[in-house]
Specification:
With 342 residues, this protein is mainly α. The chain has a two-stranded antiparallel ribbon. The chain has a two-stranded antiparallel ribbon with strand order 3-4. A hairpin with a 5-residue loop joins strand 3 and strand 4. Helix 4 packs antiparallel against helix 5, helix 5 packs antiparallel against helix 9 and helix 6 runs parallel beside helix 9. The longest helix has 29 residues. The radius of gyration is 21 Å and the shape is globular. The termini are far apart.
Length: 342
């Protein structure tokens, strides 16, 4: 495919789409029902359908029965960890292999033309972004993901988490399924804003932002504290009538879904003239500029709170103006403290 039909490259080779980022026609007034119906298939396809399917497969084929789950035991806990680790290795590894090792589509639709494997940096373990990111994802991300999953499965099995029956509450559970991506995004926004506070950023979130040019293994490359906060969104299922499948779906949105925002390509080619949209440009801009697009845009939280960047020059201008105002406030506070100490 010719990516120049869909976007442009600047002098440094950085690619961006022709169309500015927009929020879905969901939280708008007055409502736009036709626009909403036109957008709705993209809410499901392909990613949410894939993650719901993986949750169902994990629950029905790769999770012990309820009686086993009632008692915490090393055997089944290690089995859950092993299946999560293998699944992450295969899923993340497939994107890494096709796009970054074999480079099947070269740098077509790649936002940053540089491949992380071609450069070395002292900020990463072994000076390698790929090795560092993989070790952090598998060494910290998957164990903490598994700990939340084990806790939720145990809570459902013992009645500590309210569970709705599929046969008697199908509409309720369908509604929770539809809202789970919104739950995940809202929680992600709150956590993300919190860990950009100076102290938390310095000691926690900076680990993730070392990957300025993210690739698939950057997805869960985080400090363990950030992993704890990131996966804690699944705890919402302790307070609503839900189902273990939906808790797994929530975790898969967080775990497997993180790849979608960090894959580094706007489209993944599926043929000579077809491609799958990743919808990752919003989060790529966050890695590039740090203080924009704390959410992914499903809920227009960044637009509401003034941190939205749509990828255009106007977005650059608004971002720079916010930064200048922030620096002015910081300098004013610093001058005020120095005046008090005189």
């Amino acid at each position: 495919m010719d990516d120049q039909q869909y976007g442009t490259r600047d002098k440094r080779g950085h690619w961006k789409p022709n169309e500015p980022l927009t929020n879905p026609p969901v939280f708008v007034f007055p409502p736009k029902p036709l626009a909403f119906l036109k957008w709705l298939p993209s809410y499901f396809l392909p990613w949410n359908v894939i993650f719901m399917a993986s949750a169902l497969a994990f629950w029905y084929y790769l999770t012990p029965d309820t009686e086993t789950l009632k008692t915490l035991a090393p055997g089944w806990i290690l089995a859950i960890f092993a299946r999560n680790a293998v699944a992450v290795f295969l899923f993340y590894g497939a994107f890494e292999l096709l796009l970054y090792i074999k480079r099947r589509q070269a740098n077509r639709f790649k936002y940053n033309p540089v491949f992380p494997g071609d450069t070395k940096s002292d900020v990463f373990w072994f000076k390698s972004q790929n090795i560092d990111n993989m070790l952090r994802s598998l060494g910290s991300g998957v164990p903490i993901w598994t700990a939340f999953e084990v806790g939720m499965l145990w809570a459902f099995a013992n009645g500590y988490a309210p569970m709705a029956d599929v046969m008697t509450n199908p509409l309720w559970l369908a509604a929770i399924m539809l809202l789970t991506p919104a739950f995940h995004e809202f929680h992600f926004y709150l956590v993300h804003r919190a860990i950009h506070a100076p102290v938390l950023y310095k000691y926690v979130h900076s680990v993730h932002h070392n990957s300025v040019n993210p690739s698939p293994w950057s997805s869960l490359s985080m400090h363990p504290v950030e992993h704890l906060l990131y996966f804690s969104g699944v705890l919402v299922h302790l307070f609503i009538h839900s189902h273990p499948v939906l808790a797994l779906y929530h975790l898969h949105l967080a775990g497997f879904g993180a790849v979608v925002g960090h894959v580094g390509f706007d489209k993944i080619e599926a043929g000579a003239e077809s491609a799958v949209d990743t919808h990752s440009f919003a989060h790529y801009l966050h890695h590039k500029y740090f203080e924009v697009n704390y959410a992914d845009g499903l809920i227009p939280l960044d637009r509401w709170f003034g941190t939205w960047h749509d990828g255009t020059r106007a977005g650059d201008t608004a971002m720079n103006e916010r930064w200048q105002k922030k620096m002015q406030r910081m300098n004013a506070r610093k001058a005020s403290r120095e005046g008090e100490n005189v």
